[in-house]
Design brief:
The chain is an alpha/beta fold and 511 residues long. It is built from 18 helices and 22 strands. It folds into two domains: 185 residues, Rossmann fold (3-Layer(aba) Sandwich), CATH 3.40.50; 180 residues, P-loop containing nucleotide triphosphate hydrolases (Rossmann fold). The relative contact order is 0.11.
Length: 511
């Protein structure tokens, strides 16, 4: 009896790209070990794993940044050697990195076309063609961003949009997206998903890396899980659950923080009619001891700008900031720190870390006054301080003496968190505290914030992840176009109501 006819399995198709048995070590750290992955045309392939699992190393191998120690890359059925990013680009591979890499003194359009500017017949840069193409790409993304704007000063979300635009402008057939939604709001994420769907429909192969498992299930057809540099699962998503992926990623169950309203005390932060022309207007609110208050809204609503004004990074034109009953001098981070304020900024690389300093020195930077004896900083005290926080935040590193730029993006974020948590602030401002952080550490950060609130710390949190806002915050303040629109209690808030307020579908002041 002959065997029944069957539909050809996915594995029988020829991959557009195949990474075969790749290994990569950096000194004593084995970043990848015998990892293989196939990408197929018209398919979105999810890649997940904890920070330090090897995802960024895999991306850099595909980008031509790092050659694998062993293994090979096959594109379109032919083996290729990627000696650099130009070879990857010529092979049809476009990379959207987790950390945007822009030339700050060039315009948006110049960044998108860097090294491949269209030329006129006279061999001059055709700026009209360049701008027209960039405007077409931004129209596909559904975003409004001036192509002639200088890149310096762009928010993380805007920088990410430029990186996405750069990849789309290449018309690449293999697109790698490393945490592309980490700094985007729900509206921007929906637009990006529409672009990914159109890329898939056009026959592109997309490798989509995210810590947000709901995005993996919404967008991807296949998934690969890495743990400690090794491949532990690679298959179709159908039939898998989020719990299955979590167990594969971390090798254990994750116990989520149970969100409970803490007993609140007196007012720690009082913001009254704060105004900075062109950024935010007439913003007033308070945060009490033991309370977690979230600022929600779309990218560009002014949330991060308000945080920077409170901490003194930016000045403001009118209004006042009071901490623990004392007025805070505007434009002075030193005064804010002396008053017990800590800020975990949105841009960890530019504002949160000194990338060339050691991990231990970065962790201790905000607490040097507490670690000194007789005017000297003891390296042993600094090391013990860093070791303690490295354990608490499950930091993955080679040596604490390694530079911060040796860490993955998520582990860099943990160092920033450790720096400010170690200072024991009375008011902690956290701007996108879990951006680029894996699911296990995210749960740990949530528990740490809850623990701090239980100790009486006032916490002001900015997050573009609405599930995080709804899970963690006791109160949610929604901003739109630089104004504070409305406020929800934890019990009142839903994703639909927050989005409605942020997009102008809810009347100002309505709750």
């Amino acid at each position: 009896m002959s065997a029944p006819a069957r539909t050809p399995a996915v594995e029988e198709r020829i991959p557009v790209l195949s990474l075969q048995h790749a290994s990569k070590a950096f000194g004593a750290v084995q970043a990848l070990e015998d990892v293989s992955i196939d990408l197929f045309a018209g398919e979105v392939h999810g890649l997940v794993g904890e920070n330090g699992a090897g995802k960024s190393t895999l991306v850099k191998i595909l980008a031509g940044v790092h050659p694998p120690d062993t293994g090979s890359i096959v594109v379109g059925g032919l083996p290729v050697f990627l000696a650099g990013p130009a070879d990857a680009r010529d092979s049809g591979i476009a990379i959207i990195y987790q950390e945007p890499i822009l030339f700050p003194d060039l315009t948006v359009e110049e960044n998108i076309f860097i090294g491949r500017q269209p030329l006129t017949t006279g061999r001059r840069i055709d700026r009209h063609a360049m701008r027209s193409h960039v405007m077409e790409v931004f129209q596909r993304l559904g975003v409004r961003l001036d192509p002639g704007r200088i890149a310096r000063g762009l928010s993380i979300a805007e920088q990410q949009i430029v990186e996405i635009g750069k990849a789309l402008s290449l018309d690449a057939k293999i697109i790698v997206m490393d945490e592309p939604t980490a700094a985007l709001s729900a509206v921007e994420v929906a637009r990006l998903f529409g672009v990914v769907d159109s890329l898939r429909a056009s026959g592109a192969a997309v490798l989509f890396i995210s810590h947000r498992l709901e995005e993996i299930f919404q967008l991807c057809q296949r998934v690969t899980v890495l743990r400690d540099g090794r491949l532990v699962l690679s298959r179709e998503l159908e039939g898998l659950t989020a719990d299955d992926l979590v167990r594969a990623m971390v090798g254990r169950e994750i116990v989520e923080r149970e969100s409970e309203q803490q007993a609140v005390g007196g007012t720690v932060l009082l913001v009254e009619r704060l105004t900075r022309e062109g950024f935010f207007t007439d913003v007033s609110f308070e945060v009490k001891a033991g309370e977690i208050v979230a600022l929600a809204g779309l990218v560009g609503a002014g949330r991060s700008e308000v945080a920077c004004a409170i901490f003194g990074i930016d000045s403001y034109d009118a209004g006042s900031v009071t901490v623990n009953g004392r007025g805070l001098r505007r434009g002075s981070p030193t005064a804010a720190m002396s008053a017990g304020v800590g800020l975990v900024p949105e841009d960890r690389r530019q504002q949160g870390l000194v990338m060339d300093l050691s991990i231990s020195r970065n962790v201790a930077l905000a607490s040097l006054g507490r670690l000194q004896r007789f005017g000297f900083i003891l390296s042993s005290s600094e090391r013990r301080f860093a070791e303690d926080w490295a354990v608490r935040l499950r930091l993955r590193y080679g040596r604490l003496s390694d530079a911060a730029n040796s860490l993955s993006g998520g582990n860099q974020q943990k160092v920033v968190l450790a720096k400010w948590l170690g200072r024991q602030p009375t008011l902690l401002i956290v701007d996108e505290p879990t951006r680029g952080i894996d699911i296990a550490t995210k749960a740990e950060v949530h528990r740490l914030l809850d623990e701090l609130a239980g100790q009486g710390v006032a916490i002001l949190m900015i997050s573009s992840e609405l599930p995080e806002v709804l899970h963690v915050a006791d109160r949610i303040l929604v901003m739109r176009e630089g104004r504070l629109i409305t406020e929800f209690t934890h019990a009142e808030a839903t994703e639909e109501r927050i989005v409605a307020a942020a997009t102008g579908q809810l009347e100002e002041g309505a709750a």
